[in-house]
């Protein structure tokens, strides 16, 4: 009953439908039954921002509720959408930086609580690069006291996980949903492997870049996708010229002009920015979010938007955007 009321409330709240201009049509509108629904759970970076939670993308295709990365606040965003933690997954990690993984313990452990927001009955299913099994094994050890108590508490849940370490290629194929992992370039030998993902379902697709700088392999796997969700970084030019540290950070990510080159080669129906990093200081203010699209226009003239937390992209015969306004629990 609680979830039914939440669902009813969600669709009676103000929903802004944004018209997206396509390459071959004047405009598109929201469809009633998109093949794939993509919801940005978090569009931020390591900064502890209440407006932009840590990187995470929910992709709903068929019966699957796949989550790509689990940055800070992912559990809260899932529950804002009315999705119990116990129903979320499988989870796919682009790489093992903490800002992409820190909410895994919250989702995993609280997902087993016998409450409306928990209720998991099966092991948490997680896919990621080399090191994923080790990370999950040590999380199990770190929370041993907690897990011991849960497994002897109400309902006696078995708190478990399955961790699969992946290589490039198809890593998931179930219920008509195919997930393909591909290697990207996070800019430093110590930050390998790092992956992006492509999801295909019912003739539609979405690509999630993960953390990367300009990458031809991403272009190869993303070619002609319906939607690409791509990271972005921008720094004050004067700060960039003066600071070796800032140049180092920028070298791990994708500036707007390079992202535009990716989009021009991929030719998506829509490009969406996430994992937004804007660098500045008291002397040299950071670029604003509003500057990202104009900077992208130096190399790309197609449809592109700056993602926000709880922005939903509906992928069907057309592509549309909803900006969801949901209550906090």
Could you characterize the architecture of this molecule?
Residues 53-253 form the Metallo-beta-lactamase domain. Pfam families: Lactamase_B_2. This is MBL fold metallo-hydrolase. With 329 residues, this protein is an alpha/beta fold. The chain has a single domain, classed as Metallo-beta-lactamase, Chain A (4-Layer Sandwich), CATH 3.60.15.10. Helices cover 24% and strands 28% of the residues. It is built from 10 helices and 16 strands. It has helices spanning 2-12, 74-80, 104-110, 132-142, 144-151, 216-222, 237-242, 244-250, 256-266, 292-296; strands spanning 16-18, 36-42, 56-61, 64-68, 91-92, 124-128, 161-165, 169-174, 177-184, 194-201, 204-208, 227-235, 270-279, 304-306, 311-315, 319-323.
- Using the CA coordinates, give the radius of gyration: 20 Å
**Highest-level CATH class:** Alpha Beta
Classify the fold: give the CATH topology: Metallo-beta-lactamase, Chain A
Spans with pLDDT under 50 lasting ≥5 residues? 1-31
Keywords: Hydrolase
Domain Metallo-beta-lactamase: 53-253
InterPro entries: AtsA-like_MBL-fold, Metallo-B-lactamas, RibonucZ/Hydroxyglut_hydro
Protein name: MBL fold metallo-hydrolase
Brief description of this entry?
With 329 residues, the protein is an alpha/beta fold. Helices cover 24% and strands 28% of the residues.
């Amino acid at each position: 009953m609680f979830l039914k009321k939440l669902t009813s409330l969600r669709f009676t709240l103000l929903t802004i439908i944004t018209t997206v201009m396509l390459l071959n049509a004047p405009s598109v509108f929201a469809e009633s039954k998109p093949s794939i629904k993509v919801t940005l759970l978090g569009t931020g970076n390591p900064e502890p921002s209440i407006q932009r939670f840590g990187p995470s993308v929910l992709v709903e295709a068929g019966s699957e509720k796949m989550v790509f990365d689990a940055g800070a606040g992912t559990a809260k965003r899932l529950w804002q959408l009315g999705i119990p933690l116990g129903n979320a997954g499988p989870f796919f990690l682009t790489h093992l930086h903490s800002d992409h993984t820190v909410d895994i313990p919250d989702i995993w452990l609280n997902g087993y609580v016998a409450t409306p927001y928990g209720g998991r009955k099966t092991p948490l299913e997680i896919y990621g690069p080399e090191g994923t099994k080790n990370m999950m094994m040590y999380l199990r050890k770190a929370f041993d006291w907690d897990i011991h108590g849960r497994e002897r508490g109400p309902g006696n849940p078995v708190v478990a996980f399955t961790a699969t370490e992946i290589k490039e290629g198809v890593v998931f194929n179930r219920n008509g949903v195919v997930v393909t992992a591909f290697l990207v370039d996070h800019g430093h030998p110590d930050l390998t492997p790092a992956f992006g993902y492509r999801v295909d379902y019912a003739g539609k697709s979405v690509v999630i870049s993960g953390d990367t700088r300009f990458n031809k392999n991403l272009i190869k796997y993303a070619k002609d996708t319906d939607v690409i969700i791509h990271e972005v970084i921008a720094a004050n030019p004067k700060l960039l010229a003066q600071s070796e540290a800032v140049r180092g950070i920028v070298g791990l990510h994708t500036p707007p002009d390079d992202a535009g080159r990716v989009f021009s080669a991929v030719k998506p129906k829509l490009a969406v920015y996430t994992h937004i990093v804007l660098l500045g200081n008291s002397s040299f203010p950071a670029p604003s979010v509003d500057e990202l699209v104009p900077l992208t226009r130096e190399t790309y003239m197609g449809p592109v938007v700056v993602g926000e937390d709880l922005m939903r992209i509906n992928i069907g015969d057309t592509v549309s955007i909803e900006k969801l306004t949901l209550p906090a629990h």
